[in-house]
Amino acid sequence: MSLVYKAACPEDTQRVLALRERVRRAMRLPPAAWHCPDRIPEDQMTGPLPVRKALAIRLKLSHMPSDLWKGQLFAGSMTLESPRVHAEWGFPDYLTDREREQAARRGLSIRSVFGHIVPDYERLLRKGLCGIRADAEAQLGGADRRETAFLNSVIIAVDAVMDYAARLALRCEREAQCCPRPERAAELQRMAANLRQAPADPARTFWQALQSVWLLHMVFHSTMNGNALGRLDQYVWPYLEGDLEAGRIDYATAAELVSCFCLKFNERAKATEDQLPESREPEELDFEKRTRHDTSSQVGTRRDSIDATNHWLQNIVIGGLAPDGADSTNPLTFLLLEAYRRNRMTNPLLTVRVHRESPAELLRAACEALKEGGGMPAVFNDETLVPALERLGIAECDARDYTNDGCWEVIIPGRTDFKFQRLSLMLCLEWALNRGRGRRDGSVRGLRTPDPRQMTSFGEVWYAFVRQLDHMVRRVTRRVVQSLDERSTVAPVPLLSALLDGPIEKRRDMTAGGAKYTTFGMLAESAAHAIDSLTAIKSVVFDEGAATMAELCDALEADFCGHGRLRAKLLAAPKYGNADQRADAMGRRVIDAFTECVRRHATRYETRARFPCGVGTFSWYIGIGEGLGASPDGRREGEPVSSNFSPALGRDVEGIPAAILSYGAMPHRELPAGGPLDMRIQKRLVEREDGTDRMAALIRAFVDSGGSMMTLTVTDTEELRAAQREPENYESLRVRMGGWCAYFTMLSREQQEHHIRRQEASP
What we know:
The chain is of the alpha/beta class.
C-alpha cells in the first residue's frame, strides 16, 4: 500500500500552485454586484407549484455565468475571480402572494430547503441526466395530476442543467479558438468535450466523472440546496481505475485533476475585512428568540452566522467498508487526503471511515493531514456505526454504505431525506430544578414538576429530569410528523429528487415522502454537562450529604456568588471524560433515558419516519451556553458548553486516552446519527514520524474502544495567540468548529478565545 500511496501523490504542478494562490487572493476581494432574476415570468405562474420551482431553477441557471477561472481544468463557477461576482446568491421567487402568506404562517418560505442530503452521484455517472430524464418520462403513463406535475418538474430541472452544461461547453470552445497557447487550447477543447458527454450522458473517464459531480454539486448549491458529496472515492474510483488500466492517464495527471477539483470548493470562500473580529458589532441576547422551537438553549445567531461564512456542507467521505463488507480504500482515497493536506483550506470537508482492518497506510496518511491542523479528516468508526444503523432498521448493505450530511450526522447516500433537531438535556435539567422555568429569562417552557427544594432522594431529581425530557421529545416527534410533508407545498426539490432512490419510482418529490429512507435526527445537546451535573447532585448532595437540595438551588440562583465552597465540591465531583466509573455509569443512564424516550414516541410513527438519536452541539456551543443558567457541575451562568459529545472544558484531567475510554463506554449503538468526541493535541506531541505513529495508534485504540466519531485538532496555544496578534501571517490557520473547520483569524473574538481556552486545557 505504501508504494501505491507514493505513486498516487506526486508533487504539485505549477498550475495547482498558481491556482491555490489565486484562490487565496480572491478570498480577500470585496463582492461585486450581481443580479439574480426576482421571480419567474407571470405567464408561468399558472402552472403547478413543482413545475414553477423547476422553472425557477431553469431561470437561475440561464443567468449563471459561464466564465472560467484561468488555468482551471473544471468549468462552472458559483463565484468569479474578478470581478468577484457571487452568483450563488439569490433565487427567483415562484410563489403566488397567497401561497407566500400561507407559507409564512407556518414559518416556511421558498428558502425552506434543508439541504444536508447526499445525492446519488453514482446514478448520475452511470446513467447520465438523459437516462434519468427517460426514467421520469417512462413514469408519466398512468400518472395522476399531482404525479404528472412532479415528473414534469424533474424533466424541466434536468433539462436546465444540461442546457447550462452545453453553454459551458460552448464557452470552453470559444476560449480555445482564441487561446494563443496550443497546450491550453487543447485542454479547453477537452473540457468542452467532457461537458458535451457528461452530465447529459454517462461519464466515460475520470476527468468527466469529476466534472459531472462538480457541476451538479454547484448547481445544487446555487439553487438553495446545500448538499454534501458522500463517498467520492467509491463512486469515482472505477473511472480512474479504468483510465489507469487503459493508459489514458497516469497518477501525476490524476493528482493534478483531484487538486484542481478540490480547489473549486473554495472559489466562493470569503476572507474580507467585515469578517474580522474587530469589525464585528456586539449582539444583544434576546431570550425571546431562542432557536429550534424552544428545545435548544441557544440564543443569538449573528456571531455564529458570520463565523460560518465559509461552511457549506461540502463533506467528502473516504475509506471504510464497502457494501459487501470488504475494505474500500483505493488510490483515490489517498489523492483526496493529500489534496486536502496540501491545500490547507477549509473546503471540501473531509471524513475518513475506519475499521479494524483499515490499512495502516490509510491511518498514517490521515494523521499526516491532521497534523496540518483544522481537525480534518474527522474519524468515523464503522465497527460501531454500521451496527447502530442496522438497529435503526437500515439494511446491512445500505448501513455499510453510510456517509454524513455535510457536518457529521450519519445518513445513507442517495437514499435519504434527512432533517434534525437539537434537544437540550441541560435545559431539561434546568427545568427540573426550577419547576419548568428557565433561569436566564424566567420563561416557563417546561413542565411544572415538583419543588426541587423539597426533594429528598436522587430518584426524585432523576424522575423530574426524565419527565421534562419525555415532554420535550413527545412535542418534537409529534410536530415533526405533523409537518413532515409541509415543505412539498412550498419548497419541493425536483432536481435533488431526480438524484435519489425512490422519488421517480414513487412519482413523488423527496419532500413529499419520495425517498427510500426518511430520517429525522434527534440530537441531545449539552450532554457532558447534564452527565456531570447529575453525577454531582448524586455525589455531593445525596451520597456525601455535603449540601441540601435547597442549598444547591440557592447556589444556582445566585450563579454561585457567595457559594464558593459548594461550587468547589461540585467541581470536584466525578466528571465524564476521565474513565471514572461513576460518571460513565451516569452517562450511560442519561443517554439510555434519552434514546428510550425517543424510541417510545417514535414507535407510533415508524411507518412515516425513523428518528435516529445522536449527541451534538455543532459550532453553537457558545450560544447554547449563553442561554443556560448556572449548572450543578459548577459551570457558571452563560459559560459555553462543550462541543458535541466531548467532556466539559478542562474537566478531562486524565488526558486523551481516558477521554476516549469514557466516550467509548457510552451506548453508541443506540446513537446511529452519531456524536463526535472533539479532542485537541499539542503539536509537540505529534512531531516527526514517531508522532504520526502515536496518532495512528490512538486512532486504532479509538476504534477498539467502541466510540463512533472522533476529531483531532493539532495546534498550540502560542500559535493561536500569535494569530490574534498578527493575523496577516496566519491566514491558513484553521480550527475545528464542531462539524466543520474555519480560518481562525476570521472568527469572532469570543470564538477565538474559546478555542484558546480549549487548547490550554488539552494535554
